[in-house]
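Propose amino acids for all 149 sites.
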C-alpha cells in the first residue's frame, strides 16, 4: 500500500504538469519491479492528437523502454479512470494491474460507464482498484474546470 501511494502521488504530480500546460490534469505512471518504465500526462491539446492521453503516453514510453508492445507484470497508476480507448490499450499491452484515483462518470471504462476490464470474451484480464488518493485527484480536476469556466 505504501508503494501504491508513492506511485499514485507521482501520477498526481504528472497531472499537475498537464494542468500547467493547459491540459486536463491527468497523469499516469507504469511501474515494473519497483521501477518506473513509463510515464505521461494528458497532451491531446498541445499535440493536436486525440490519442495523447496520459495512459497512452505512458504506454508508449514503457513499450519503447522494454522493446516490447506487451508489458506483463506491470502496474499502471493513473489519476483518473481510463476511457474506452485507454482501457483497450491497457488490455492489449497486457498490463497486470491498474490503480486509478477518481472515477470518470462520463467516459470511464473501468466501471463508471462500461467495464472493459471485465468483458468475458477478452483474452486478458486486468486487475484494477479505484479510489487511491481520489480526493486529491478530484480536487485537482474540479479546480481545473472551475478556472476554465
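Proposal:
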Amino acid at each position: 500500500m505504501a508503494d501504491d501511494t508513492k506511485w499514485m502521488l507521482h501520477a498526481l504530480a504528472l497531472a499537475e504538469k498537464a494542468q500547467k500546460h493547459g491540459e486536463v490534469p491527468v497523469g499516469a505512471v507504469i511501474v515494473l519491479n519497483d521501477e518506473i518504465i513509463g510515464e505521461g500526462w494528458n497532451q491531446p491539446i498541445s499535440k493536436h492528437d486525440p490519442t495523447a492521453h496520459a495512459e497512452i503516453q505512458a504506454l508508449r514510453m514503457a513499450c519503447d523502454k522494454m522493446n516490447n508492445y506487451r508489458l506483463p507484470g506491470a502496474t499502471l497508476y493513473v489519476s483518473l479512470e481510463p476511457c474506452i480507448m485507454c482501457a483497450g490499450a491497457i488490455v492489449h499491452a497486457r498490463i497486470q494491474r491498474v490503480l486509478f484515483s477518481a472515477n470518470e462518470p462520463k467516459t470511464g471504462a473501468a466501471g463508471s460507464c462500461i467495464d472493459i476490464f471485465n468483458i468475458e470474451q477478452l483474452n486478458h484480464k486486468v486487475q484494477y482498484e479505484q479510489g487511491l488518493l481520489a480526493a486529491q485527484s478530484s480536487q485537482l480536476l474540479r479546480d481545473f474546470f472551475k478556472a476554465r469556466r
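Helices lie at 2-20, 44-47, 54-66, 84-92, 134-148. The radius of gyration is 14 Å.
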